[in-house]
Amino acid sequence: MICEDSFLSNRRSRVWPSTSVDNCLGIFGISVYNKCTFMASKKLRSVELFTGAGGLAMGLELAGFEHCAAIEWDHDSCETIRENQRQNFPLVKNWNIHECDVRNFDYSTIQEDIDLVAGGPPCQPFSLAGKHKGFDDSRDMWSEAVRSTRELNPRAFIFENVKGLLRHAFDTYFAYILLQLSFPSVARKKNEDWITHSRRLEKLEKNGSKVEYRVKFKLLNAADYGVPQKRERVVIVGFRSDLNVTWDFPTPTHSHRHITVNDAISDLPNISSTRPTSKTPNHSFQKGARFYKGHTGSRLDESAKTLKAGAHGVPGGENMIDNNDGTCRYFSVREAARLQCFPDGYIFPGSWSASMRQLGNAVPVLLAKVLGQSVANALRDNSIDDKKGTPILTYGKHRELQSA
User: Fold this and answer.
1) pTM for this prediction
2) Which residues of 313-337 are buried (b: 16+ CB within 10 A; e: fewer)?
3) What SS3 class is residue 33?
4) In the sheet that 328-330 helps form, which strands lie side by side, from edge to edge?
5) Is the pLDDT of residue 128 over 90?
6) Domain ranges, residue 92
């Protein structure tokens, strides 16, 4: 049993804005499962990096992708997915979870042809709430995103990161990320610093060398796609150039009417310091919330402010409700899960802080589904008999390019 019958009954009886129902499957309980049947006939294969609690991967599963591997180093996040597998939760039950450092993962163990590589490299190096160390931060994993693309040669990739990646201070490094993703086979040489490597890539681009991947990026606000949260993220999408795919980012569906916090959580039982628990999984009162400068919580009649994991992995004042009467309280884990569009049947077995950290780092399931469907449609429309296609220039085997 994924959810209590009475809870599902409440979910079905809700009245939602007519424009929001189809685009909010990730929030609205069991209806999410009824949309999975269309995927059975033609699955696309993917590899998920930096899986976390599974938001991006779950949305891509809904879009028709089958994950050959899901890689995540954080034990709590892996345990969240494993617990839902033990509960036979349909969207994750077949995932092959690898709890390891992505830097140590051997992609040669994946025998299938891969259609998509996806993931959100750790955002703390570029987060506005972090220390802004960028490339100098040991958590910067963009090189691993590039390595996965180089070694798996997927037909496409989707990578997500924080808005801070577009800060002026990171302009040069962001350009370097895009160049690496455009020419993933041109790897850094031993003892080569990133600036020298970037210049080699720039030289290839200026000399008119054919890119291996056609790369686009855009700053998206999840609220514009039906997510009840104002969450701005940089999304980078690339298609292998031999596919000749013409693609652009999906058109916003909710820019005229954002889904509010109240829309997302109003049917959940009331919780407070005097009524701290409920029968709804992951829905209990967490004490300690207070207003302080820069942390004023989210209003019920607006989309939520961006849920955050916290600069030190501890969620803070962004993750609370402003009751508009001078009081506030923290979101419960279930409420935060709703704001990130996780289905109600998806359980978070850890502590409040561990669960909120996972949710603060997640990609909203609905946004992932919208992006995934768009990319999947483009891949299906441009399918070729040999998914690996003609090998793109392997620069390591071409001396004149390797020395460029």
Assistant:
1) 0.85
2) eebbbbbbbbeeeeebbbbbbbbbb
3) helix
4) 298-299, 320-322, 328-330
5) no
6) 24-256+362-402
Q: How many other CB atoms sit within 10 Å of the CB of residue 386? A: 7
**What's the pLDDT score for residue 316?**
58
The span from the CA of 380 to the CA of 39, in Å, is 12
pLDDT at 217: 98
For residues 135 and 42, what is the distance between their CA atoms, to the nearest angstrom?
39
Question: Tens of pLDDT along 363-388?
Answer: 999 999 999 999 999 999 976 544 44
> 């220390």: which residue's tokens?
131
C-alpha distances (whole Å) from 6 to each of 24, 34, 147, 155 are 21, 19, 48, 44
Beta strands in 224-313 (DSSP E): 232-240, 298-299
Question: For residue 43, what are its two tokens?
Answer: 């699955």
Q: Is 326 a domain residue?
A: no
CA distances from 348 to 41, 155, 273, 321, 336 (A): 31, 33, 22, 20, 11
Report long-range pairs for 197-203 (Cβ below 8 Å, ≥24 apart). Answer: 198/172, 200/404, 201/176, 203/404
Residue 187 lies inside a defined structural domain of this protein? yes
46 in a structural domain:
yes
**Residues 219, 70, 92, 35, CA torsion sign:** positive
Q: Which residue is catalytic, options 24, 123, 328, 341?
A: 123
Backbone angles phi, psi at 229, to 5 degrees: -160, 135
Query: Which CATH number fits the domain that encloses residue 193?
Result: 3.40.50.150
3 in active site: no
The reply to whether 388 falls in a domain is yes
Determine whether 37 is exposed, middle or buried from the number of CB atoms within 10 Å of its CB (0-12, 13-18, 19+).
Answer: exposed
Cα–Cα distance, 396 to 214 (Å, whole number): 20
Q: Could you give the number of structural domains in the chain?
A: 1
